[in-house]
Design a protein that fits this description.
The structure is a single chain. 85% of the residues lie in helices and 0% in strands. By secondary structure, the chain is mostly helical. The chain has one domain. The longest helix has 34 residues.
Length: 118
C-alpha cells in the first residue's frame, strides 16, 4: 500500500509540474514592438528573419496571456517607454529569450525521441 501511494505521488507530481518560466506579458509586448522596428529597419534578410521570428513568438505569447483590449492598453503604455537607445539591448534580450525557448523545446523533442526508441 505504501509503495502504491509513493508511485501515485510521483505520477501526480510529474503531471502537475510547473511549466517552464515564460516572460511576463509586458516583456512580450516590448519584444513584439521592438522586433517590429527591427524588421522594418533591417538591411539584410537574416536580420529581417530574426526580427520576424521574435515578433511571431511574442505575438503568440501575448495572445495566450492577454485579451485584445489588454494588449491594446499595454502597447500604448509600453511603446512610449522604448527609446532608440534601448531598442538594440531589448532586441538582443528578446532574441536570447527566443533562442532559450527553442533550445528547451528541442531538448524535449530529443528526450521524447530517446524514450520512443526504448
Amino acid at each position: 500500500m505504501h509503495r502504491a501511494i509513493m508511485c501515485l505521488t510521483a505520477v501526480a507530481t510529474t503531471a502537475v509540474a510547473a511549466p517552464a518560466q515564460t516572460a511576463p506579458a509586458d516583456a512580450n509586448i516590448r519584444c513584439f514592438l521592438v522586433s517590429n522596428m527591427f524588421a522594418k529597419a533591417a538591411k539584410d534578410a537574416k536580420g529581417q528573419q530574426i526580427a520576424a521570428f521574435v515578433r511571431f513568438y511574442n505575438l503568440g505569447q501575448m495572445q495566450a496571456k492577454l485579451s485584445p483590449a489588454q494588449i491594446k492598453a499595454q502597447v500604448a503604455v509600453i511603446g512610449k517607454s522604448i527609446s532608440p537607445a534601448s531598442a538594440a539591448d531589448i532586441m538582443n534580450s528578446c532574441a536570447g529569450d527566443l533562442e532559450g525557448a527553442d533550445k528547451a523545446i528541442e531538448a524535449i523533442g530529443q528526450q521524447l525521441q530517446a524514450q520512443a526508441r526504448k
